[in-house]
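Appendix B, Record 12. Input sequence as logged:
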Amino acid sequence: MKKRFSIAQILKLVDTSGYSLHKQNVFKRIKECKTPAMGGYVSICENEECLKIKTNFQSCRDRNCECNFKRRQESIIKVVEGKFPVKHFHVTTTMPHECNGIYFYNQRKFTKLILTANQKAIMQVAKDKWNVKGGGIAHFHSHGSDLKTHPHVHSIVPSGGISLKDGQWKSFRHHYLAHEKVIAGAFKKYFLRGLKKMISKGSLNIPKQLGFIDVCEATLYDFVSKLCDKKWKANVQPSKRNEVHVVRYLTGYQRRSPLSNRRILSIDENNRVRFLYKDYKNKKNDAVKAVSAKEFVRRFANHIPEKGTHKTSSFGIYGHAVKKKNAKLAHDFVYGKDKTEHAKQIVETLKQVYRMNIIIKKVIKKSSLCFSCQSSTAPFADASGEMRLLDSG
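Logged structural output:
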């Protein structure tokens, strides 16, 4: 059987006392996750021929830990069930790497800035191109698969919106949102506008080690002018397989560790960590990178969000206050033309959504089954009828 490695093992090899109190608490929760230190309970198999007793240790439920699988799957179900019955786009907008240094010292402010710029860009493009109120669900991602800093936003955007002319649902012709250069230009405009506001208010934390000769408004505005001359990138892709695939791809970034345990290949005696990552430059999905345990923890810590940081936003017609009303308009538009080929494809997609929901719910339920006979388990109670709990410590 292949030996498994985890982030908790790597954290135990490194002295993390130099990190902030918030990050030290995150490390502590990850190291203690599903161990006797977290406490737990005892369950017994309900099959009378088996009656195996299982010890279940509690998970830490930290959003940076691998234990959030169940909550992540539940969030997928929630998004899938509330999704509009139309085709969707997968839109990715990226911040230039020249901003990475400033981002590192202003993570919370830049996360809000990049999400807001992405939201306004998509709304503006939908209005100018199709004369509709658009929307979507966006999630901020601060790193690439090799744990290097790479701030960008993934969004799912419906192929339609609420017409500004008559308030009815209007689908995009030929399943086309806009050219990538148009979206990149709009994102650039709103991002730089927000950055200039932060500079004028003096709300950015810019230490001397970033290399600026003089940290003043004039120097920072020169930096912004250089960003204006760069080519900004955006990527727009229609859903390739089915609508559930796009939703699962986006929600897979929520409540998850920056790097999953299954991608860690080995930890050698010299405390060097080998892990898998995607090398997009050479088009290799299973490239291997080797770094020291100290460097691995440093990269991992860079992508632990500050306390109170919101990385996901629902905007426009996907806003929580108007989502049900707008979904009904889209539903009536699609099923009002149920004789068309397009509507038949939508019905088939909804069937796939239903099947995916059943599969995910079965995966969640399976985690509570007996490891021996796969029968259901129940909390083990003592003679007094009270459930037997395990104390932490």
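The first strand starts at residue 40 and ends at 45.
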